[in-house]
Amino acid sequence: MSLELLILGSNSAAFAHRRHHTAQLFKLQDQHFLIDCGEGTQLLMKRHKVRLSRIDHIFISHLHGDHYFGLIGLLSTMHLFGRKKELILVGPPGLSEIIQLQLRHSETSLNFQIRFTEFTPNESEVVYDHPKYTVTTLPMDHRVPCSGYLFREKPKKRRINRNKLPEVELSHLDIARLKDGEDILNKDGSVKYENRLLTKDPNPSFSYAFFSDTRLRPQLLETIKGVDLLYHEATFANDMKDRAEQTYHTTAEQAAQFAKDAGVGKLILGHFSARYKELDPIIDEARAVFEHTELAIEGTKFVVDGK
Amino acid sequence: MSLELLILGSNSAAFAHRRHHTAQLFKLQDQHFLIDCGEGTQLLMKRHKVRLSRIDHIFISHLHGDHYFGLIGLLSTMHLFGRKKELILVGPPGLSEIIQLQLRHSETSLNFQIRFTEFTPNESEVVYDHPKYTVTTLPMDHRVPCSGYLFREKPKKRRINRNKLPEVELSHLDIARLKDGEDILNKDGSVKYENRLLTKDPNPSFSYAFFSDTRLRPQLLETIKGVDLLYHEATFANDMKDRAEQTYHTTAEQAAQFAKDAGVGKLILGHFSARYKELDPIIDEARAVFEHTELAIEGTKFVVDGK
Protein backbone atom coordinates (compact mmCIF):
# COMPACT_ATOMS: atom_id res chain seq x y z
CA MET A 1 0.00 0.00 0.00
CA SER A 2 1.20 3.46 -0.78
CA LEU A 3 0.18 7.06 -0.95
CA GLU A 4 0.50 9.06 -4.16
CA LEU A 5 0.06 12.74 -4.87
CA LEU A 6 -0.01 14.09 -8.43
CA ILE A 7 0.23 17.87 -8.78
CA LEU A 8 -2.09 19.14 -11.53
CA GLY A 9 -1.93 22.88 -10.83
CA SER A 10 0.01 24.96 -8.34
CA ASN A 11 -0.27 28.67 -9.04
CA SER A 12 -2.15 31.25 -7.03
CA ALA A 13 -4.73 33.72 -8.30
CA ALA A 14 -3.54 34.32 -11.90
CA PHE A 15 -2.42 31.81 -14.50
CA ALA A 16 1.25 32.57 -15.07
CA HIS A 17 4.49 31.05 -16.33
CA ARG A 18 2.58 28.02 -17.65
CA ARG A 19 1.38 27.32 -14.11
CA HIS A 20 -2.30 26.60 -13.53
CA HIS A 21 -4.64 26.96 -10.60
CA THR A 22 -4.72 24.60 -7.65
CA ALA A 23 -5.70 20.99 -8.30
CA GLN A 24 -4.23 17.76 -7.00
CA LEU A 25 -4.96 14.11 -7.44
CA PHE A 26 -4.38 12.16 -4.23
CA LYS A 27 -4.45 8.36 -4.16
CA LEU A 28 -4.90 6.35 -0.98
CA GLN A 29 -6.12 2.75 -0.63
CA ASP A 30 -6.91 2.60 -4.35
CA GLN A 31 -9.25 5.57 -4.00
CA HIS A 32 -8.60 8.72 -6.02
CA PHE A 33 -9.36 12.06 -4.43
CA LEU A 34 -9.40 15.29 -6.35
CA ILE A 35 -8.40 18.14 -4.07
CA ASP A 36 -9.43 21.57 -5.35
CA CYS A 37 -10.36 22.14 -8.94
CA GLY A 38 -9.25 25.42 -10.57
CA GLU A 39 -10.38 26.36 -14.07
CA GLY A 40 -9.05 23.95 -16.67
CA THR A 41 -8.52 21.04 -14.25
CA GLN A 42 -10.25 18.65 -16.65
CA LEU A 43 -7.78 19.71 -19.36
CA LEU A 44 -4.87 19.09 -16.99
CA MET A 45 -6.26 15.66 -16.11
CA LYS A 46 -6.33 14.87 -19.81
CA ARG A 47 -2.76 16.09 -20.21
CA HIS A 48 -1.57 13.91 -17.33
CA LYS A 49 -3.65 10.92 -18.44
CA VAL A 50 -5.94 10.82 -15.42
CA ARG A 51 -9.26 9.23 -16.30
CA LEU A 52 -12.27 11.16 -15.03
CA SER A 53 -14.03 7.94 -14.10
CA ARG A 54 -11.40 7.24 -11.45
CA ILE A 55 -12.51 10.15 -9.33
CA ASP A 56 -15.11 9.27 -6.70
CA HIS A 57 -14.30 11.98 -4.16
CA ILE A 58 -13.75 15.69 -4.60
CA PHE A 59 -12.66 17.99 -1.79
CA ILE A 60 -12.87 21.77 -2.27
CA SER A 61 -11.09 24.05 0.19
CA HIS A 62 -12.83 27.38 -0.40
CA LEU A 63 -14.75 29.52 -2.87
CA HIS A 64 -11.97 31.63 -4.34
CA GLY A 65 -12.12 30.94 -8.05
CA ASP A 66 -8.58 29.61 -8.39
CA HIS A 67 -9.66 26.67 -6.23
CA TYR A 68 -13.02 25.68 -7.73
CA PHE A 69 -13.95 27.37 -11.06
CA GLY A 70 -13.16 24.11 -12.89
CA LEU A 71 -15.59 22.05 -10.81
CA ILE A 72 -18.83 22.71 -12.69
CA GLY A 73 -17.14 21.89 -16.01
CA LEU A 74 -15.71 18.68 -14.58
CA LEU A 75 -19.12 17.59 -13.26
CA SER A 76 -20.71 18.41 -16.63
CA THR A 77 -18.14 16.32 -18.49
CA MET A 78 -18.65 13.40 -16.09
CA HIS A 79 -22.37 13.64 -16.88
CA LEU A 80 -21.69 13.80 -20.61
CA PHE A 81 -19.50 10.72 -20.42
CA GLY A 82 -22.38 8.81 -18.87
CA ARG A 83 -21.19 8.56 -15.29
CA LYS A 84 -23.65 6.67 -13.09
CA LYS A 85 -21.58 6.21 -9.92
CA GLU A 86 -22.30 8.41 -6.93
CA LEU A 87 -19.78 11.18 -6.37
CA ILE A 88 -18.77 12.35 -2.94
CA LEU A 89 -18.23 16.10 -2.78
CA VAL A 90 -16.99 17.93 0.30
CA GLY A 91 -16.76 21.71 0.38
CA PRO A 92 -17.70 24.98 2.02
CA PRO A 93 -21.18 26.44 2.47
CA GLY A 94 -22.41 27.91 -0.82
CA LEU A 95 -20.74 25.39 -3.13
CA SER A 96 -23.84 23.27 -3.54
CA GLU A 97 -26.01 26.33 -4.25
CA ILE A 98 -23.62 27.49 -6.99
CA ILE A 99 -23.63 24.09 -8.66
CA GLN A 100 -27.39 23.68 -8.43
CA LEU A 101 -28.01 27.14 -9.91
CA GLN A 102 -25.81 26.40 -12.91
CA LEU A 103 -27.36 22.98 -13.48
CA ARG A 104 -30.82 24.50 -13.28
CA HIS A 105 -30.06 27.14 -15.93
CA SER A 106 -28.63 24.54 -18.29
CA GLU A 107 -31.68 22.35 -17.61
CA THR A 108 -29.33 19.52 -16.72
CA SER A 109 -30.34 16.69 -14.47
CA LEU A 110 -27.12 14.78 -13.74
CA ASN A 111 -27.04 11.04 -14.46
CA PHE A 112 -25.31 10.51 -11.14
CA GLN A 113 -25.92 11.43 -7.54
CA ILE A 114 -23.70 13.97 -5.78
CA ARG A 115 -23.47 13.23 -2.06
CA PHE A 116 -22.52 16.66 -0.75
CA THR A 117 -21.01 17.27 2.67
CA GLU A 118 -20.79 20.91 3.68
CA PHE A 119 -17.98 21.42 6.16
CA THR A 120 -18.42 23.64 9.19
CA PRO A 121 -16.06 26.60 8.88
CA ASN A 122 -13.60 27.13 11.76
CA GLU A 123 -14.13 23.65 13.16
CA SER A 124 -12.13 20.48 12.76
CA GLU A 125 -14.45 17.60 11.98
CA VAL A 126 -14.39 14.20 10.32
CA VAL A 127 -16.06 14.76 6.95
CA TYR A 128 -15.46 11.28 5.59
CA ASP A 129 -15.13 8.10 7.62
CA HIS A 130 -14.09 5.05 5.63
CA PRO A 131 -13.38 1.71 7.33
CA LYS A 132 -9.72 2.14 6.42
CA TYR A 133 -9.14 5.90 6.67
CA THR A 134 -10.66 9.20 7.72
CA VAL A 135 -10.69 12.66 6.21
CA THR A 136 -10.71 15.49 8.73
CA THR A 137 -11.04 19.21 8.02
CA LEU A 138 -8.24 21.55 9.02
CA PRO A 139 -9.65 25.06 9.59
CA MET A 140 -7.55 27.58 7.67
CA ASP A 141 -7.09 31.27 8.45
CA HIS A 142 -8.09 32.95 5.19
CA ARG A 143 -10.31 35.76 3.94
CA VAL A 144 -13.30 33.48 3.29
CA PRO A 145 -14.38 30.21 4.96
CA CYS A 146 -11.58 27.82 4.07
CA SER A 147 -10.49 24.38 5.10
CA GLY A 148 -7.55 22.09 4.53
CA TYR A 149 -7.90 18.33 4.74
CA LEU A 150 -6.10 15.62 6.67
CA PHE A 151 -6.21 12.14 5.13
CA ARG A 152 -5.16 9.52 7.65
CA GLU A 153 -5.20 5.75 7.35
CA LYS A 154 -6.54 3.96 10.41
CA PRO A 155 -4.12 1.61 12.23
CA LYS A 156 -3.69 -1.59 10.27
CA LYS A 157 -3.84 -5.17 11.59
CA ARG A 158 -0.73 -7.10 12.64
CA ARG A 159 0.77 -9.30 9.91
CA ILE A 160 1.12 -13.08 10.36
CA ASN A 161 4.74 -14.22 10.24
CA ARG A 162 4.45 -16.90 7.59
CA ASN A 163 7.82 -18.43 8.49
CA LYS A 164 6.34 -19.62 11.75
CA LEU A 165 3.18 -21.17 10.30
CA PRO A 166 4.63 -24.68 9.70
CA GLU A 167 5.44 -24.95 13.44
CA VAL A 168 1.93 -24.24 14.71
CA GLU A 169 -1.67 -25.23 14.24
CA LEU A 170 -4.09 -22.35 13.75
CA SER A 171 -7.79 -22.07 12.94
CA HIS A 172 -9.21 -19.20 10.88
CA LEU A 173 -10.46 -17.68 14.09
CA ASP A 174 -6.97 -17.91 15.58
CA ILE A 175 -5.54 -16.04 12.59
CA ALA A 176 -8.09 -13.27 12.99
CA ARG A 177 -7.25 -13.01 16.70
CA LEU A 178 -3.55 -12.82 15.96
CA LYS A 179 -4.11 -10.03 13.45
CA ASP A 180 -6.03 -8.14 16.12
CA GLY A 181 -3.04 -8.47 18.46
CA GLU A 182 -4.41 -11.17 20.77
CA ASP A 183 -2.54 -14.18 22.08
CA ILE A 184 -3.89 -17.68 21.35
CA LEU A 185 -5.08 -19.36 24.52
CA ASN A 186 -5.55 -22.96 25.61
CA LYS A 187 -8.96 -24.05 26.90
CA ASP A 188 -7.80 -23.49 30.47
CA GLY A 189 -6.93 -19.89 29.62
CA SER A 190 -3.18 -20.32 29.61
CA VAL A 191 -1.22 -18.89 26.70
CA LYS A 192 -0.73 -21.37 23.87
CA TYR A 193 1.04 -19.04 21.40
CA GLU A 194 2.25 -15.57 22.22
CA ASN A 195 1.13 -13.05 19.66
CA ARG A 196 4.55 -11.40 19.34
CA LEU A 197 6.12 -14.69 18.30
CA LEU A 198 3.73 -15.30 15.40
CA THR A 199 3.14 -11.80 14.07
CA LYS A 200 4.99 -8.82 12.73
CA ASP A 201 4.17 -5.17 13.23
CA PRO A 202 1.41 -3.78 11.00
CA ASN A 203 2.24 -1.97 7.79
CA PRO A 204 2.57 1.74 8.44
CA SER A 205 -0.53 3.93 8.29
CA PHE A 206 0.02 6.78 5.89
CA SER A 207 -1.18 10.32 6.21
CA TYR A 208 -1.35 13.45 4.09
CA ALA A 209 -2.21 16.98 5.17
CA PHE A 210 -3.31 19.57 2.61
CA PHE A 211 -3.01 23.17 3.78
CA SER A 212 -4.89 25.39 1.35
CA ASP A 213 -4.75 29.19 1.41
CA THR A 214 -3.96 30.29 4.95
CA ARG A 215 -1.89 32.28 7.31
CA LEU A 216 0.36 30.12 9.48
CA ARG A 217 -1.68 27.77 11.69
CA PRO A 218 0.48 26.85 14.72
CA GLN A 219 -2.66 25.61 16.48
CA LEU A 220 -2.79 22.70 14.01
CA LEU A 221 0.75 21.53 14.78
CA GLU A 222 -0.33 18.73 17.11
CA THR A 223 -3.08 17.57 14.74
CA ILE A 224 -0.73 16.94 11.85
CA LYS A 225 2.34 15.88 13.84
CA GLY A 226 4.38 13.30 11.94
CA VAL A 227 2.30 13.14 8.74
CA ASP A 228 4.14 11.58 5.83
CA LEU A 229 3.38 14.39 3.44
CA LEU A 230 2.42 17.97 4.10
CA TYR A 231 1.34 20.24 1.25
CA HIS A 232 1.45 23.83 2.41
CA GLU A 233 0.82 27.00 0.50
CA ALA A 234 3.81 29.32 0.19
CA THR A 235 2.46 32.16 -1.87
CA PHE A 236 5.43 34.39 -1.07
CA ALA A 237 9.08 34.28 -0.04
CA ASN A 238 9.88 35.70 3.37
CA ASP A 239 10.81 39.20 2.17
CA MET A 240 7.07 39.55 1.43
CA LYS A 241 6.08 38.52 4.96
CA ASP A 242 3.95 41.62 5.54
CA ARG A 243 2.13 41.14 2.26
CA ALA A 244 1.53 37.49 3.18
CA GLU A 245 0.05 38.55 6.50
CA GLN A 246 -2.22 41.18 4.89
CA THR A 247 -3.53 38.77 2.24
CA TYR A 248 -3.90 35.79 4.62
CA HIS A 249 -1.09 33.77 3.07
CA THR A 250 2.13 32.12 4.25
CA THR A 251 5.78 32.50 3.30
CA ALA A 252 8.05 29.62 2.33
CA GLU A 253 10.19 30.08 5.44
CA GLN A 254 7.14 30.04 7.73
CA ALA A 255 5.81 26.88 6.09
CA ALA A 256 9.21 25.17 6.37
CA GLN A 257 9.53 26.01 10.08
CA PHE A 258 6.01 24.69 10.63
CA ALA A 259 6.86 21.44 8.79
CA LYS A 260 10.05 21.04 10.83
CA ASP A 261 8.25 21.62 14.12
CA ALA A 262 5.57 19.11 13.10
CA GLY A 263 8.19 16.53 12.16
CA VAL A 264 6.60 15.72 8.82
CA GLY A 265 8.19 13.31 6.37
CA LYS A 266 8.17 15.66 3.42
CA LEU A 267 6.96 19.20 2.76
CA ILE A 268 5.56 20.22 -0.63
CA LEU A 269 5.18 23.92 -1.31
CA GLY A 270 2.64 25.39 -3.76
CA HIS A 271 0.19 28.21 -4.56
CA PHE A 272 2.97 30.39 -5.90
CA SER A 273 2.42 34.05 -6.58
CA ALA A 274 2.66 35.06 -10.24
CA ARG A 275 5.50 37.37 -9.23
CA TYR A 276 7.83 34.34 -9.08
CA LYS A 277 8.71 33.29 -12.58
CA GLU A 278 11.55 31.23 -11.15
CA LEU A 279 10.81 29.47 -7.89
CA ASP A 280 14.37 29.42 -6.51
CA PRO A 281 13.65 32.03 -3.82
CA ILE A 282 10.82 29.84 -2.51
CA ILE A 283 12.65 26.53 -2.42
CA ASP A 284 16.00 27.92 -1.29
CA GLU A 285 14.68 29.67 1.81
CA ALA A 286 12.50 26.69 2.72
CA ARG A 287 15.30 24.12 2.44
CA ALA A 288 17.56 26.28 4.59
CA VAL A 289 15.04 25.57 7.37
CA PHE A 290 13.70 22.12 6.43
CA GLU A 291 15.72 20.05 4.03
CA HIS A 292 12.96 17.63 2.97
CA THR A 293 11.06 20.23 0.95
CA GLU A 294 9.92 20.00 -2.65
CA LEU A 295 8.04 22.28 -5.03
CA ALA A 296 4.57 21.43 -6.31
CA ILE A 297 5.63 21.41 -9.95
CA GLU A 298 2.80 20.44 -12.29
CA GLY A 299 2.95 16.84 -13.40
CA THR A 300 5.15 15.77 -10.47
CA LYS A 301 4.07 12.67 -8.59
CA PHE A 302 5.08 12.24 -4.96
CA VAL A 303 4.99 8.67 -3.69
CA VAL A 304 5.26 7.44 -0.10
CA ASP A 305 5.42 3.66 0.12
CA GLY A 306 7.09 3.08 3.45
CA LYS A 307 10.05 1.33 1.91
CA MET B 1 -11.82 49.50 -41.92
CA SER B 2 -12.13 45.78 -41.68
CA LEU B 3 -13.77 42.99 -39.80
CA GLU B 4 -11.71 40.30 -38.08
CA LEU B 5 -12.71 37.07 -36.43
CA LEU B 6 -10.25 35.03 -34.39
CA ILE B 7 -11.36 31.53 -33.45
CA LEU B 8 -10.31 30.65 -29.88
CA GLY B 9 -12.33 27.46 -29.39
CA SER B 10 -14.62 25.48 -31.62
CA ASN B 11 -15.62 22.15 -30.12
CA SER B 12 -18.99 21.15 -28.79
CA ALA B 13 -19.78 19.69 -25.38
CA ALA B 14 -16.55 17.79 -24.61
CA PHE B 15 -12.95 18.90 -24.98
CA ALA B 16 -11.51 16.60 -27.64
CA HIS B 17 -8.73 16.31 -30.21
CA ARG B 18 -7.06 19.41 -28.76
CA ARG B 19 -10.19 21.41 -29.54
CA HIS B 20 -11.65 23.67 -26.86
CA HIS B 21 -15.09 25.02 -26.13
CA THR B 22 -16.69 27.87 -28.04
CA ALA B 23 -15.03 31.28 -27.82
CA GLN B 24 -14.34 33.86 -30.51
CA LEU B 25 -12.77 37.26 -30.63
CA PHE B 26 -14.53 39.53 -33.10
CA LYS B 27 -13.11 42.93 -34.05
CA LEU B 28 -15.16 45.68 -35.64
CA GLN B 29 -14.46 49.42 -35.71
CA ASP B 30 -11.49 48.94 -33.36
CA GLN B 31 -13.75 47.36 -30.78
CA HIS B 32 -13.07 43.83 -29.57
CA PHE B 33 -16.01 41.59 -28.78
CA LEU B 34 -15.67 38.28 -27.04
CA ILE B 35 -18.42 35.93 -28.21
CA ASP B 36 -19.05 33.02 -25.86
CA CYS B 37 -16.52 31.99 -23.28
CA GLY B 38 -16.06 28.26 -22.63
CA GLU B 39 -13.84 26.99 -19.83
CA GLY B 40 -10.21 27.91 -20.38
CA THR B 41 -10.93 30.88 -22.68
CA GLN B 42 -8.52 33.07 -20.71
CA LEU B 43 -5.81 30.46 -21.30
CA LEU B 44 -6.59 30.43 -25.02
CA MET B 45 -6.43 34.23 -25.12
CA LYS B 46 -3.00 34.02 -23.56
CA ARG B 47 -1.94 31.41 -26.11
CA HIS B 48 -3.10 33.58 -29.01
CA LYS B 49 -1.68 36.78 -27.50
CA VAL B 50 -5.00 38.54 -26.96
CA ARG B 51 -4.74 41.05 -24.15
CA LEU B 52 -7.62 40.88 -21.67
CA SER B 53 -7.72 44.66 -21.42
CA ARG B 54 -8.80 44.89 -25.07
CA ILE B 55 -12.16 43.31 -24.33
CA ASP B 56 -14.92 45.78 -23.55
CA HIS B 57 -17.90 43.71 -24.72
CA ILE B 58 -18.81 40.11 -24.03
CA PHE B 59 -21.76 38.35 -25.65
CA ILE B 60 -22.92 34.99 -24.30
CA SER B 61 -25.32 32.89 -26.35
CA HIS B 62 -26.73 30.51 -23.74
CA LEU B 63 -26.13 28.77 -20.43
CA HIS B 64 -24.78 25.44 -21.57
CA GLY B 65 -21.39 25.16 -19.93
CA ASP B 66 -19.37 24.83 -23.10
CA HIS B 67 -20.40 28.40 -23.95
CA TYR B 68 -19.87 30.23 -20.65
CA PHE B 69 -18.02 28.30 -17.91
CA GLY B 70 -14.90 30.37 -18.57
CA LEU B 71 -16.66 33.70 -17.99
CA ILE B 72 -16.43 33.94 -14.19
CA GLY B 73 -12.71 33.14 -14.33
CA LEU B 74 -12.16 35.76 -17.01
CA LEU B 75 -13.99 38.42 -15.00
CA SER B 76 -12.00 37.47 -11.88
CA THR B 77 -8.71 37.82 -13.76
CA MET B 78 -9.76 41.19 -15.17
CA HIS B 79 -10.44 42.28 -11.58
CA LEU B 80 -7.11 40.92 -10.40
CA PHE B 81 -5.28 42.81 -13.14
CA GLY B 82 -6.83 46.03 -11.89
CA ARG B 83 -9.38 46.69 -14.61
CA LYS B 84 -11.34 49.90 -14.01
CA LYS B 85 -13.15 50.27 -17.35
CA GLU B 86 -16.81 49.37 -17.56
CA LEU B 87 -17.54 46.06 -19.25
CA ILE B 88 -20.60 45.48 -21.39
CA LEU B 89 -22.04 42.00 -20.96
CA VAL B 90 -24.98 40.66 -22.95
CA GLY B 91 -26.48 37.28 -22.23
CA PRO B 92 -29.49 35.19 -21.32
CA PRO B 93 -31.63 35.42 -18.20
CA GLY B 94 -29.83 33.80 -15.27
CA LEU B 95 -26.30 34.76 -16.26
CA SER B 96 -26.14 37.76 -13.98
CA GLU B 97 -27.51 35.76 -11.04
CA ILE B 98 -24.82 33.08 -11.51
CA ILE B 99 -22.03 35.66 -11.61
CA GLN B 100 -23.35 37.59 -8.62
CA LEU B 101 -23.69 34.42 -6.52
CA GLN B 102 -20.10 33.41 -7.21
CA LEU B 103 -18.77 36.90 -6.49
CA ARG B 104 -20.71 37.00 -3.24
CA HIS B 105 -19.27 33.69 -2.02
CA SER B 106 -15.72 34.79 -2.82
CA GLU B 107 -16.46 38.12 -1.08
CA THR B 108 -15.30 39.91 -4.21
CA SER B 109 -16.41 43.39 -5.12
CA LEU B 110 -15.19 43.97 -8.67
CA ASN B 111 -13.06 47.06 -9.36
CA PHE B 112 -15.09 47.65 -12.50
CA GLN B 113 -18.73 47.98 -13.42
CA ILE B 114 -20.50 45.34 -15.48
CA ARG B 115 -23.29 46.80 -17.59
CA PHE B 116 -25.45 43.75 -18.09
CA THR B 117 -28.10 43.47 -20.79
CA GLU B 118 -30.33 40.45 -20.50
CA PHE B 119 -31.69 39.47 -23.89
CA THR B 120 -35.31 38.45 -24.36
CA PRO B 121 -35.44 34.81 -25.46
CA ASN B 122 -37.27 34.09 -28.74
CA GLU B 123 -37.26 37.71 -29.83
CA SER B 124 -34.96 39.59 -32.16
CA GLU B 125 -33.93 42.87 -30.57
CA VAL B 126 -31.14 45.41 -30.73
CA VAL B 127 -29.07 44.77 -27.62
CA TYR B 128 -26.32 47.24 -28.40
CA ASP B 129 -26.67 50.41 -30.42
CA HIS B 130 -23.40 52.18 -31.19
CA PRO B 131 -23.26 55.26 -33.45
CA LYS B 132 -21.44 53.15 -36.03
CA TYR B 133 -22.95 49.70 -35.67
CA THR B 134 -25.67 47.66 -34.00
CA VAL B 135 -25.78 44.25 -32.39
CA THR B 136 -29.06 42.39 -32.79
CA THR B 137 -30.04 39.09 -31.24
CA LEU B 138 -30.89 36.14 -33.47
CA PRO B 139 -33.24 33.75 -31.63
CA MET B 140 -31.89 30.22 -31.89
CA ASP B 141 -33.87 26.98 -31.68
CA HIS B 142 -32.09 25.10 -28.91
CA ARG B 143 -32.91 23.21 -25.73
CA VAL B 144 -32.47 26.25 -23.47
CA PRO B 145 -32.96 29.97 -24.17
CA CYS B 146 -30.27 30.73 -26.75
CA SER B 147 -29.41 33.58 -29.03
CA GLY B 148 -27.03 34.26 -31.86
CA TYR B 149 -25.84 37.79 -32.62
CA LEU B 150 -25.79 39.91 -35.74
CA PHE B 151 -23.14 42.62 -35.84
CA ARG B 152 -23.87 45.13 -38.55
CA GLU B 153 -22.14 48.39 -39.37
CA LYS B 154 -24.50 51.28 -40.10
CA PRO B 155 -24.29 52.78 -43.60
CA LYS B 156 -21.18 54.92 -43.89
CA LYS B 157 -20.95 58.43 -45.30
CA ARG B 158 -20.01 59.11 -48.93
CA ARG B 159 -16.34 59.74 -49.55
CA ILE B 160 -15.07 63.02 -51.03
CA ASN B 161 -13.33 62.52 -54.37
CA ARG B 162 -10.07 64.31 -53.62
CA ASN B 163 -9.13 64.50 -57.31
CA LYS B 164 -11.95 66.97 -57.84
CA LEU B 165 -11.13 69.27 -54.92
CA PRO B 166 -8.74 71.62 -56.82
CA GLU B 167 -11.56 72.44 -59.27
CA VAL B 168 -14.10 73.55 -56.68
CA GLU B 169 -14.48 75.78 -53.65
CA LEU B 170 -16.01 74.12 -50.61
CA SER B 171 -16.64 75.17 -47.03
CA HIS B 172 -16.46 72.72 -44.11
CA LEU B 173 -20.25 72.73 -44.11
CA ASP B 174 -20.28 71.86 -47.81
CA ILE B 175 -17.99 68.89 -47.16
CA ALA B 176 -20.30 67.61 -44.43
CA ARG B 177 -23.30 67.98 -46.76
CA LEU B 178 -21.52 66.09 -49.54
CA LYS B 179 -20.65 63.26 -47.17
CA ASP B 180 -24.33 63.06 -46.22
CA GLY B 181 -25.20 62.70 -49.92
CA GLU B 182 -26.57 66.22 -50.51
CA ASP B 183 -25.88 68.43 -53.53
CA ILE B 184 -24.29 71.87 -52.97
CA LEU B 185 -26.75 74.63 -53.83
CA ASN B 186 -26.40 78.24 -54.90
CA LYS B 187 -28.17 80.92 -52.87
CA ASP B 188 -31.06 80.86 -55.35
CA GLY B 189 -31.52 77.14 -54.74
CA SER B 190 -30.07 75.97 -58.03
CA VAL B 191 -27.51 73.17 -57.98
CA LYS B 192 -23.93 74.44 -57.78
CA TYR B 193 -22.18 71.07 -57.54
CA GLU B 194 -23.86 67.75 -58.04
CA ASN B 195 -23.04 65.32 -55.25
CA ARG B 196 -22.28 62.43 -57.57
CA LEU B 197 -19.56 64.42 -59.32
CA LEU B 198 -17.63 65.20 -56.13
CA THR B 199 -18.08 62.02 -54.10
CA LYS B 200 -17.54 58.32 -54.28
CA ASP B 201 -19.68 55.57 -52.85
CA PRO B 202 -19.22 54.92 -49.11
CA ASN B 203 -16.92 52.21 -47.90
CA PRO B 204 -18.86 48.99 -47.50
CA SER B 205 -20.64 48.32 -44.24
CA PHE B 206 -19.52 45.00 -42.87
CA SER B 207 -21.62 42.47 -41.08
CA TYR B 208 -21.12 39.26 -39.15
CA ALA B 209 -23.73 36.77 -38.01
CA PHE B 210 -22.96 34.30 -35.23
CA PHE B 211 -25.28 31.31 -35.09
CA SER B 212 -24.75 29.50 -31.81
CA ASP B 213 -26.26 26.12 -30.98
CA THR B 214 -29.43 25.71 -32.97
CA ARG B 215 -31.54 23.71 -35.33
CA LEU B 216 -31.76 25.25 -38.77
CA ARG B 217 -33.40 28.70 -38.68
CA PRO B 218 -34.89 29.39 -42.13
CA GLN B 219 -36.98 32.19 -40.59
CA LEU B 220 -33.75 34.18 -40.10
CA LEU B 221 -32.72 33.98 -43.75
CA GLU B 222 -33.96 37.46 -44.65
CA THR B 223 -32.42 38.99 -41.51
CA ILE B 224 -28.92 37.87 -42.35
CA LYS B 225 -29.13 38.05 -46.13
CA GLY B 226 -25.80 39.03 -47.65
CA VAL B 227 -23.73 39.21 -44.47
CA ASP B 228 -19.99 39.11 -45.12
CA LEU B 229 -19.33 36.35 -42.62
CA LEU B 230 -21.64 33.76 -41.19
CA TYR B 231 -20.49 31.49 -38.39
CA HIS B 232 -22.87 28.59 -38.08
CA GLU B 233 -22.73 25.57 -35.86
CA ALA B 234 -22.36 22.24 -37.65
CA THR B 235 -22.20 19.77 -34.83
CA PHE B 236 -22.74 16.81 -37.14
CA ALA B 237 -22.36 15.68 -40.75
CA ASN B 238 -25.55 14.96 -42.62
CA ASP B 239 -25.59 11.21 -41.95
CA MET B 240 -26.38 12.22 -38.35
CA LYS B 241 -29.30 14.40 -39.37
CA ASP B 242 -31.76 12.69 -37.02
CA ARG B 243 -29.39 13.03 -34.11
CA ALA B 244 -28.92 16.71 -34.97
CA GLU B 245 -32.68 17.20 -34.94
CA GLN B 246 -33.11 15.42 -31.61
CA THR B 247 -30.35 17.40 -29.92
CA TYR B 248 -31.33 20.75 -31.47
CA HIS B 249 -28.25 21.02 -33.65
CA THR B 250 -27.50 21.48 -37.36
CA THR B 251 -25.60 19.42 -39.93
CA ALA B 252 -22.85 20.79 -42.17
CA GLU B 253 -24.97 20.32 -45.29
CA GLN B 254 -27.93 22.14 -43.76
CA ALA B 255 -25.73 25.05 -42.70
CA ALA B 256 -24.15 25.25 -46.16
CA GLN B 257 -27.52 25.31 -47.91
CA PHE B 258 -28.66 28.04 -45.53
CA ALA B 259 -25.52 30.08 -46.23
CA LYS B 260 -26.01 29.65 -49.97
CA ASP B 261 -29.66 30.70 -49.81
CA ALA B 262 -28.71 33.72 -47.72
CA GLY B 263 -25.99 34.71 -50.18
CA VAL B 264 -23.36 35.24 -47.50
CA GLY B 265 -19.77 36.09 -48.35
CA LYS B 266 -18.20 33.29 -46.37
CA LEU B 267 -19.45 30.52 -44.12
CA ILE B 268 -17.44 29.32 -41.13
CA LEU B 269 -18.47 26.06 -39.52
CA GLY B 270 -17.83 25.18 -35.88
CA HIS B 271 -19.08 23.49 -32.70
CA PHE B 272 -17.87 20.12 -33.88
CA SER B 273 -18.95 16.94 -32.15
CA ALA B 274 -16.15 15.06 -30.41
CA ARG B 275 -16.97 12.11 -32.70
CA TYR B 276 -15.09 13.87 -35.52
CA LYS B 277 -11.39 13.56 -34.94
CA GLU B 278 -10.81 14.59 -38.54
CA LEU B 279 -13.14 17.27 -39.86
CA ASP B 280 -13.09 16.22 -43.52
CA PRO B 281 -16.68 14.88 -43.48
CA ILE B 282 -17.89 18.28 -42.24
CA ILE B 283 -16.03 20.48 -44.69
CA ASP B 284 -16.41 18.18 -47.69
CA GLU B 285 -20.18 17.95 -47.55
CA ALA B 286 -20.51 21.68 -46.87
CA ARG B 287 -18.29 22.73 -49.78
CA ALA B 288 -20.23 20.47 -52.12
CA VAL B 289 -23.18 22.80 -51.46
CA PHE B 290 -21.46 26.13 -50.78
CA GLU B 291 -17.90 26.56 -51.93
CA HIS B 292 -16.97 29.52 -49.72
CA THR B 293 -16.94 27.50 -46.53
CA GLU B 294 -14.15 27.26 -43.95
CA LEU B 295 -13.68 25.43 -40.67
CA ALA B 296 -13.41 27.26 -37.35
CA ILE B 297 -9.95 25.94 -36.58
CA GLU B 298 -8.53 27.34 -33.37
CA GLY B 299 -6.09 30.17 -33.90
CA THR B 300 -7.41 30.96 -37.40
CA LYS B 301 -8.15 34.59 -38.14
CA PHE B 302 -10.74 35.47 -40.78
CA VAL B 303 -10.43 38.97 -42.22
CA VAL B 304 -12.92 40.80 -44.39
CA ASP B 305 -11.55 44.12 -45.63
CA GLY B 306 -13.59 44.75 -48.72
CA LYS B 307 -10.59 44.60 -51.02
Number of domains of chain A: 2
On the 0-100 scale, what is the average pLDDT of chain A? 95
Outline the biggest β-sheet of chain A. Answer: 7 strands, mixed
Proportion of residues in helical segments of chain A: 10-25%
Approximate strand percentage of chain A: 25-35%
Query: Can you tell me the residue ranges of chain A where pLDDT is under 50 for at least 5 consecutive residues?
Result: none
Oligomer: homodimer
Structure annotation, total helices of chain A: 8
- CATH names the topology of the largest domain in chain A as Metallo-beta-lactamase, Chain A
Write the SSE topology.
2 copies of one chain form a homodimer.
Chain A: E1 3-9, E2 23-28, E3 31-37, H1 41-47, E4 55-59, H2 71-80, E5 87-91, H3 95-105, E6 114-118, E7 126-129, E8 133-139, E9 147-153, E10 159-160, H4 172-179, E11 184-185, E12 191-193, H5 195-198, E13 199-200, E14 207-211, E15 229-233, H6 241-246, H7 252-262, E16 266-270, H8 280-289, E17 293-295, E18 301-304
Parallel strand pairs in A: 3-4, 4-5, 5-6, 14-15, 15-16, 16-17
Antiparallel strand pairs in A: 1-2, 1-18, 2-3, 7-8, 8-9, 9-14, 10-13, 11-12
Helix pairs in contact in A: 7-8
Question: Would you give an account of this structure?
Answer:
The structure is a homodimer of 307-residue chains. Chain A has 307 residues and is an alpha/beta fold. The first copy, chain A, has two domains: 254 residues, Ribonuclease Z/Hydroxyacylglutathione hydrolase-like (Metallo-beta-lactamase, Chain A), CATH 3.60.15; 42 residues, no CATH class. The first copy, chain A, has eight helices and 18 strands. In chain A, the strands form four sheets. Chain A has a seven-stranded mixed β-sheet. Chain A starts with a strand and ends with a strand. The mean pLDDT of chain A is 95. The interface between A and B is medium-sized, with 30 and 32 residues.
